[in-house]
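Inputs:
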Amino acid sequence: MFIRFITTGGTIDKIYFDALSQFEVGESQIEHILTDGLVNFDYEIASLFRKDSLELTDDDRLQLKETIENDDARHFVISHGTDTLVETAAVLNGIPDKTIVLTGALSPARFKTTDAVFNVGMAVAAAQMAEPGVYLAISGQIFEASKVRKNRDRNRFERI
Amino acid sequence: MFIRFITTGGTIDKIYFDALSQFEVGESQIEHILTDGLVNFDYEIASLFRKDSLELTDDDRLQLKETIENDDARHFVISHGTDTLVETAAVLNGIPDKTIVLTGALSPARFKTTDAVFNVGMAVAAAQMAEPGVYLAISGQIFEASKVRKNRDRNRFERI
Amino acid sequence: MFIRFITTGGTIDKIYFDALSQFEVGESQIEHILTDGLVNFDYEIASLFRKDSLELTDDDRLQLKETIENDDARHFVISHGTDTLVETAAVLNGIPDKTIVLTGALSPARFKTTDAVFNVGMAVAAAQMAEPGVYLAISGQIFEASKVRKNRDRNRFERI
Amino acid sequence: MFIRFITTGGTIDKIYFDALSQFEVGESQIEHILTDGLVNFDYEIASLFRKDSLELTDDDRLQLKETIENDDARHFVISHGTDTLVETAAVLNGIPDKTIVLTGALSPARFKTTDAVFNVGMAVAAAQMAEPGVYLAISGQIFEASKVRKNRDRNRFERI
């Protein structure tokens, strides 16, 4: 099995810069998560964007879609900010013959306490098990792309 | 969705006791992992054993099997030592109408660097997605119970 | 021995709020650090402010000074943002008969990789060993209050 | 300031080997602790032994003493198992003109929850502040070599 990882930014990769007293998207934590997870499958990681998902444009989403369509891989895990995870999933929906799982985190992977590792674990399992289609792996669940929303008040994803 | 977790011991729950300069099975880390993972589904955790999996007996495995059979739940995640994960999976194989995912860790969950969180994330995804049957979630993969072995020399699980 | 801890905010206590995509001062991490450090001495922790140190006013510093002067304790550890650590130390300098150690962190205590625990360890040692006076514990060193500056470009403290 | 670190093994450096279901002394964690601590002073780390401190012999202690005596450095931090920390300190006591701080941990540095980082922070502060002599940095305190014992039942060090 081969999984293509594509990183786009978001909370999962956020880092704190003391000099600026600011929190920005740093380099992707996916490699560290897979190494610590002792995974035994082939993969490659491509970094496409380093953005808060609120800053992702329609053009960015089309670029992500084309990147996936033009890639020979069948199994994809996309790391992404949570605020527009659902919007990006909608754009990707319809790509044929590929299993695409979007994931992210509500708390940065660099924190001692984070949902990032758990979420990437779920995404990796879903990418190898699910039928072709687009899925979200977050809040302890695997959602189909068109049947999920972020509940901002409760800071979690829910089935609709 | 409801998932029943059953813990049996193993490396995933190991803790170091300085007084004895020894490493023993401590209380289960599953609850902490699910809390940090910000999961949003119903679950209960039952502690059945606290053993190294090399110490699990045939009777223990039958007791685990009966516990699952007598439980109304349809989705199970079992945490277990890795040395006899495959043997226990073989005993559980054949239980009808239930999706049972065994997982564990090669490095204790209490370590800074551990595969435990990633593995439980995979197991939770598999427990909700897979057809009824028995599976292993470890080494970055979801294996069917009868098609996997532990490669001790390389400290990983492989498809057979 | 008794040590009085006073927390004022700063990077050491910063937490990330996903809802706001913002990083703010959260509740103090000192209690967790002392518990994990398995310390065996008497202490109490008072929370005075929850501010970035750039937001601390002259009035705040006077309030901190009076709090220390009116306290019976002889040994103090103050957690504080790093940007104005030196300025606050200057205001406290001159309080007689008390050993006062200011510390903080360049990376939040909630991060997997942080200097917070190391710095508080240094501060606790200095608070019990040093002559009455005001000190900084950071960048692996114990500085006297009037002989230190923050080098912002190199993100560290240096003797002057 | 220059600090010479000498590592001798002990719980602080313990690692878990799944293949053996055993816990052994691994490579020293001091370098990681100093790097994460963002220290800004000169140092070198020498690895002398990798032993449980119960396995250290009289010859080992003499070798440690000679190593220190023959070293030009004035400030030393020694990482060491806790079970015979007091015995080794007694052997080193009397070396003139050097500040020697022994430290260790009751919980391995590789654990998420450990006293190792806090203890090394205390030791580094003590090594630069204390008069020549031999000290222990553990249980949140700086002890003089001849005035401390390990209370095994309560798993902590106490002044005598």
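The mean pLDDT of chain B is 94. Flag for discussion at group meeting.
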